[in-house]
């Protein structure tokens, strides 16, 4: 670079820096978004949120775990510090509701909570959990990003006998040795229930498409498996003619569906493995000038927008995947730390939204 | 005797390669088009062309900005994040009306461009590093401003995203107009000429007295604004602002379109027609695989093959 007179250079830089900072300040200062009032409604409505209900009883059937078997010491949950490690960015409704539920329950119980968010980077989650342990967490609640690769964390946790509960996704390790228990939905079951809804809406005949989730994710494979198995078993008249990934995102769901309805105009139903892709499909159908209900759409998750889609007539059914792990997770920790037995696999019961209950249950959606 | 034949074969091969480099991308588009006409049901319909054109528009607009950056011997990795930032800003300012919101979104893109350009022109950071920094920062800022997906209800935005004039969607019209504008700027203006001179050899351009810093900053501002336009159009089409997924891997699609279109990564030359064809080629490729319901992993592999072919062509060009 050609040397410049220093004064000139400094002033140019200062000017730029000031400009950037001013514009940043402006950005956050006088923003005025479109529907502030609607958001407030949403805030108050979500007060009525529902905690999860256990599908399988917490003790009884299935293998259980007790504090002696795990090798930890009894502590009072009220005086304990709980560490919570969230896996993905809190950019989608599921993650937001999940973290909020854990925080709300910790507040309610008066437990000290440490939180960390791995921003969808697995290496960060590993160091997050190690940080939580170093900061003095007595109990851990982890929403794992991946199922594998937890050895280093589990080693340091078991050295300190810290009980771990994983929520929403499982980790590949030995229950009651490396972690206490897993609380989550049965994704295969969700796929089956989505299939039931699809069979009912379409009458069991026609050609249907699947918008797959992100590849290489157990949620995608299990929701696909459950759906395909149930269709094969119960409705041989329904043919799955199209399977493409929408990567769990609305935009991708929309562009894939646009291609789908042109190459296969006779499609009768679309199964979207999450709400966002389903809403993208609705956009595409609207764009193609279809009427609500012309193509049956079934999705999984139970976000507010999708349930609103049922009310508006575009979506036929939404199978819920309940993200409100707070109450159940703390209840499990409480039972466990008191010295009682807890189940190693706690499967939660997810409800569903259809035309019959969408309007009345809209407040329950997240 | 043997030497002579060999010489002629190499010459033919070289000429063929040169032709392929020059027109390969158009050939690719034509071949894919014909293949689809024969094998894909319902391919030759207005609706289908409309969909393809609408889907390719954002990538194309981003690729135009990327072509400018690459022509100046740089690269702009921040384009995807700029799209996310513009969608956040758009949503945040929509309360003032769509006009002002769009202006704010474009200004946001320009600000990122200024930051990129200053880092490159004044501080002397490598373009790939400077824009990488802004790529991370931009996405982060977008998510701070708008932590999650938010619906856009404004009727004007919906009209922009799905409306049309004389049967041609606005989105496509805007993309076409921008392609013509950028083509004109590169060929016929002093800015375009200086940009190419700088891309060819920055020291020579400086010695010739060109305002290197100013031009470089302007290049990244253009790229930022174009990416912001793409972000606005994508938001209008989706009728929702989704800063966490909008523009993901867009920088790669744009670079692919530019490189496949025959613009050398070494700078000094920009092919706008090729860039347009490159974007269309990738769109057709993806569509073909989706319409025939091939496994999603195939799409990625096919794209990789196209990129490798393009890079191979670029390597040959660099040698001569």
UniProtKB/TrEMBL annotation, chain A:
Cellular location(s): Cell envelope
Q: Which domain of life is it from?
A: Bacteria
List, alphabetically, the SUPFAM superfamilies matched: Periplasmic binding protein-like I
Quick one: signal sequence residues? 1-33
Which residues belong to any copy of the Periplasmic binding protein domain?
91-340
InterPro entries, per this entry? Peripla_BP_I, SBP_2_dom
| Protein keywords | Signal
- Any one Pfam family here would be Peripla_BP_4
**Which regions are flagged for Polar residues bias?**
44-62
Q: Biased-composition ranges for Basic and acidic residues?
A: 32-43
Q: Does the keyword Cell membrane apply?
A: no
- Which intervals of the chain are annotated as region Disordered? 32-62
A Gene Ontology CC term for this entry? cell envelope
The molecular function terms in GO held by this entry are:
carbohydrate binding
Similarity annotation: Belongs to the bacterial solute-binding protein 2 family.
What is the official name of this protein in its record?
Answer: LacI family transcriptional regulator
Q: Which organism is it from?
A: Streptomyces populi
UniProtKB/TrEMBL annotation, chain B:
Instruction: Give the highest taxon in the source lineage.
Output: Bacteria
Organism for this UniProt entry: Streptomyces populi
- Matching Pfam families: BPD_transp_2 (PF02653)
Tell me, in one coarse class, where this protein mainly resides.
membrane
Q: Among its keywords, does the record have Membrane?
A: yes
Membrane-topology annotation of the record: Multi-pass membrane protein
Q: What is this protein called?
A: ATPase
Which compartments is it annotated to reside in? Cell membrane
